[in-house]
Amino acid sequence: MAIFSEDKMFLSYESMLAFPNVTCFTTTRFGGVSEGNYGSLNCGIYTDDDPEKIRQNLEIVKNALPQKPAVLAIPHLSHGTDYAHLGRSFLKATEEEQKARVEHKDILMTREKGICVCVTSADCLPIAIYDAKNEAICIVHAGWRGTVNHVALTALQKMRQKFNTQPEDVHVVVGPGISLAGFEVGDEVYDEFKASSYPIELVAEWVPRSHKYHINLWVANRLDIQDFGVPTSQIEMSGICTYLRYQEFFSVRRLTRDSGRLLTGIMLNK
Q1: CA distances (Å), 136 to each of 109, 112, 149, 269, in order?
Q2: Tens of pLDDT, residues 201-246
Q3: pTM here?
Q4: How far apart are CA 90 and CA 84, in angstroms?
Q5: What is the CATH number of the domain that holds 172?
Q6: Is 196 a member of any domain?
Q7: Would you say residue 160 lies in a domain?
Q8: pLDDT tens-digit readout, 56-69
Q9: How many domains in the chain?
Q10: Is 23 within a domain?
Q11: Segments forming the whole domain that contains residue 150
């Protein structure tokens, strides 16, 4: 179950709170300094918001977390399935070198304490993964393009290669994102899901009122996580639709692309 902080600036997740050595969160729209469609806690460093306001917002986030991260690793997303493994050298790199390491990576993973691996989102699904046995974490950005190419399953497979991650040791949080009700798509998107290995009857629905298909990213990503073998009891779905709750969470479909972004992060505490 997703839990709001008292000031409504963060969501935390019940399943991750069971592990005191892990910090896992998603920001909301509240508590920042940005204005308009970016108001107020815009964490999108690649948006057209005032860079100084974004910097202030990220400082607000870092200082409000239970433990201040050594670094927020925030990629410039490409809606793909490429990944980066961030080792100890990442902490010693310059800010520009760090940005280059995570450029166009929709999957970030690490075993280093103090590195908060993050993704920004505003309808796409953020997915946080914790391997409790091997003390490894991963963050995934799952928009429809990443989802149709099984980005969540790819992330788990990469964790198995890098850290020997096994399904029974994995705990997953699927954060706020657009729901089936809000995700109306064109035929070209439906066709891509139909051509994929997903059971189309579970991930797509025809809506007669609009004469459009709707896609269920929540179900598709849960199926991929289960396909890896993660027990259903260890998958926490936030159940929060950014499209329907755009006053609390940024939504591109509601607010246009010229709007803010949420930040979802996971970190191993020092």
Answers
A1: 7, 8, 23, 12
A2: 999 999 999 899 999 999 999 999 999 999 999 999 999 999 999 9
A3: 0.98
A4: 11
A5: 3.60.140.10
A6: no
A7: yes
A8: 999 999 999 999 99
A9: 1
A10: yes
A11: 2-177+232-268
